[in-house]
User: Fold this.
Amino acid sequence: MKVAIGSDHRGFPLKERLKVFLAAEGHTVQDLGTYGTDAVDYPDYAIAVAEKVARKEVDRGIVMCGSGIGVSIAANKVPGIRAALCRSVEDARMTRRHNDSNVLALAEKSLEDPAVEELVRVWLNTEFEGGRHQSRIDKISDYENR
Assistant:
């Protein structure tokens, strides 16, 4: 799977950790920055990742900032993006199964979570169920396209 990844300065250490994990899992990783811990603005990186996903240049995106909330909000401004802030493996599973999320948002504190790799693995490997959930996704897309 091709995965775009991006973060602000607070999410940088987690981004670096996940790049190694994703590569070890056999994924192709596109790092869209930031590339250090100097202060930067999270929307620049969240939007860059979301645009890559929306243009189908990558399969999925992962974005990180201090809380995960800012990058989630910014990514969701890009048409076609369904970014989900996940704090547990169950969040990751359900947002893929029911919401067909295509961008995963994570908080800096996930760096301290030894299960963050499992959360990412579950998010990447869980399929969208479709069915009754597809009509809900269609409503979101219809609204977005008005």
